[in-house]
Amino acid sequence: MFSKATEYALRAAIFIAQKSSEDNKLGIDEIARAINSPRSFTAKTLQLLSADNKIVHSTRGPNGGFYMSEKARKLPARAILEAMQEDDLLEKCVLGLKQCSEAKPCPMHSEYKSIKLQLKTLFETTTIQQLADELGKGDSKTKAGVTILYK
Q1: Domain tally for the chain?
Q2: Which of 13, 41, 87, 122 could form a disulfide with 82 if both were Cys (CB 3.0 to 4.6 A apart)?
Q3: Whole-angstrom Cα distance, residue 26 to residue 4?
Q4: 9 with 83: CB under 8 angstroms?
């Protein structure tokens, strides 16, 4: 549904929410490994998430890295889609038609309308912290306290 970049952004934001704090910043290599993404691609993704310090904060220097503030953790997951400029996918026609509307619906319009509403509600009401908490719960896919669901 989303581009690979947005999938990486969602995974990166969740990982950063799980593992970082203002006192415990994460390096780009650690984040890239955790989300199974190339370093350069991760850097570009984090740059978008860091714009205006809205979702991810970054600091330079020997004690620098990436972290997420408490305020950012409370943001809805849709904020990540917005940062990646893909939130319009929650509004568009499922077939990608420009003319799809109530007046001129595509063949899937009426069925997809309720699904689209559910998706919008899901991304608008689920916070980044809720996603981090759910993925961070211990299950058979965690090892030594480090979530490996990202791979």
Answers
A1: 1
A2: 87
A3: 22
A4: yes
